[in-house]
Every structure is written in structure tokens, then in C-alpha cells.
Amino acid sequence: MSLAQSVRLIHETVNKTLHNSPLKDRPVTILAASKGQSQEHIIQAIASGIGDFGENRVQEAEAKWPPLRKTYPQVRLHLIGPLQTNKVKKALGLFDVIQTIDRPKLAEVLSAELRALSKEKSQHSALKTQHFFIQVNIGKEPQKAGAMPDEVDALIEYCRSLHLPVVGLMCIPPSQHPPAPYFALLREMARRNGLAELSMGMSEDYETAVRMGATCIRLGRVLFGERDVTDMSN
Q1: DSSP per-residue codes, the chain
Q2: C or N: which end of the chain has fewer Cβ atoms within 10 Å?
Q3: CA distance 231 to 161
Q4: What are the Cα distances from residue 33, in Å, to 40, 188, 203?
Q5: Is the distance from CB of 83 to CB of 98 less than 8 angstroms?
Q6: Is the dihedral of CA 104, 109, 115, 118 positive or negative?
Q7: Residues 102 and 147 sit within 8 Å (Cβ to Cβ)
Q8: What are phi and psi of 164, to 5 degrees?
Q9: How far apart are CA 182 and CA 88, in angstroms?
Q10: Could you read off the pLDDT tens digit of each residue along the chain, which spans 234 residues?
């Protein structure tokens, strides 16, 4: 199956799932998880109508996206992997959306860097990030990043006190359990905090995520197949 055919099939599946969902009155962003993907595959995805891409690592994004952004300025780039505080300035210049705020210290550094960039007119053009998500460790798994569920409300409040434009929540549910209860829990967290965006659902469970209220699904394998480039470290 070609990449264009995969995109069409995903759109058809999303539209069908939305039609049968009580939460159907919302757009769903198909985000291509482009970690390890070649520029050729990314260009094919753009030509097939994909407008949002997610990278796991700042260093890989820095290496391959600047020339792509010049040619395709309409594309939005999301950080969907962990962010180290020493990479914050680079991340703010690379990504339109950062989906992985998971601790107060990171929120503080992001806020401070945003204030610094806004005061320096010579660097203001380097600031790209406009929206932030809180990453939730929805299954309380020690090997995964993300704020614990009982810490999320306080972290959202703290981010707001720092004037960070948090718009939604992101999660990766435990692979060994049915995802629906975890997606429902994330949706309830967003509802009670007045957040409109839910980044949840990947290749294995995106239909369930759409049915449960996802506004952004992060798709890699089902879109691109297996990665064709060796992973780069952050």
C-alpha cells in the first residue's frame, strides 16, 4: 500500500468512527509521527495531505526540519517526546506545539525562556511554539514520562500561573491493557480543567481514541510502515 493510500484509508476510518461516535462534532488532527523517517517519506506525506508532524527528539528535528519548513511553511511541527530543560530554547524555535510538559521545573524553564524571547526583538522571529500540552502518565508506569494523574490538576494550574498557553492533554496508555478506560480518564481530566484538546491514540488504538474523544492522533507505523532511518539521540 502506498503512503497516499494509507492516508486515504486512515481518513476513511476516522470519518467512519466519528460518524458512529457520540463525540463526533469535532475535527481530528492526523499527526504523522516522523521519528526516523526520511525527508522523502515526509514530503510524500505532505503531498498526501498531512499537515502535522511529530518528532520525539530535538536533535533529529533540528537536523532535518529547517529546510523542509522553508519549502512547506504551512506544516505544523509537534514535539511528542521528552524535553530536557537544556533543550528548551531550541525546542521553542523548532516546534509549533510542545505536547510533553510533565513537571513544574520544565514549565518554569519554558515560561522563563518565552519571556526572554519576547523581550529580545532580534530573537523573537525564532519563537515558533504557540501551544502546549501536559503529558500524563495515565497508567502510572515507572518507565514512561508524564505527570501522574493525581498531579495533573495542580500542574495545569501552575502552568496557567506562568502564562503558558496549555491547550490540552497527551497520553500513551499501557500496552497490556484495553485503552478505552485510560482515554476516558484523560478526557475527564481535560473536561474538568476546561481543556479542549486530547492527543491520544497511536497506530494500534487510534480508532478507540477517536471514539473516546481524541482531537489529535499520533500515527507512525500505520502511516509510514517500519522506520527507514536509524534513530538519533536527543
Answers
A1: --HHHHHHHHHHHHHHHHHTSTT-SS--EEEEE-TT--HHHHHHHHHTT--EEEES-HHHHHHHHHHHHHH-TT-EEEE-S---GGGHHHHHHH-SEEEEE-SHHHHHHHHHHHHHHHH-HHHHTT----EEEEEE-TT--TTS-SB-GGGHHHHHHHHHHTT--EEEEEE---TTS-SHHHHHHHHHHHHHTT--EEE---TTTHHHHHHTT-SEEEESHHHH-S--S-----
A2: N
A3: 37
A4: 14, 25, 10
A5: yes
A6: negative
A7: yes
A8: -85, 130
A9: 29
A10: 899 999 999 999 999 999 887 777 789 999 999 999 999 999 999 999 999 999 999 999 999 999 999 999 999 999 999 999 999 999 999 999 999 999 999 999 999 999 888 777 555 456 788 899 999 999 999 999 999 999 999 999 999 999 999 999 999 999 999 999 999 999 999 999 999 999 999 999 999 999 999 999 999 999 998 764 444 333
Apex 212 CA angle, 171 and 187, nearest 5: 55
* Grid cell in block for residue 49: 495531505
In which residue are the cell numbers 522553508 written? 70
Give residue for cell 491547550: 167
